């Protein structure tokens, strides 16, 4: 399960970096905490970061289930695909909200495979 733990750390590091980019955008556009609105460029950066948190809540446990019941190295590989997708999503969203689609699809595909793979693996193991 070490590959899954490493990719989990990469996912969390990515979230951390996205958070730092939100902080930088706050300073750049003069958005003082706790405000979350003001300049559209800041708002897109902020929303992209929040959306990442929403996806992590589904993806991280799904990856661990997939790793435990199907295959750890495959789970880690799919998890890295998620990381790539979320990077594309973040960059696309920050540039223009309509630019997030491709990254969203890549990340969602990875999450879906991990979620249903983990579920199916657990059901088969139980039976």
CATH architecture: Up-down Bundle
Helix content: over 70%
Distance between the termini: 23 Å
Shape designation: elongated
Give the SSE string. HHHH
CATH topology-level name: Four Helix Bundle (Hemerythrin (Met), subunit A)
Describe the model:
The chain has helices at 2-29, 40-69, 72-95, 101-126. By secondary structure, the chain is mainly α. Helix 1 runs antiparallel to helix 2 and helix 2 (40-69) runs antiparallel to helix 3.
Structural descriptors:
127 residues; single chain; elongated; Four Helix Bundle (Hemerythrin (Met), subunit A); mainly alpha
Explain the layout of strands and helices.
Layout lengths: L1 H28 L10 H30 L2 H24 L5 H26 L1
Nutshell version of this structure?
Helix content is 85%, strand content 0%. It has 4 helices and no strands.
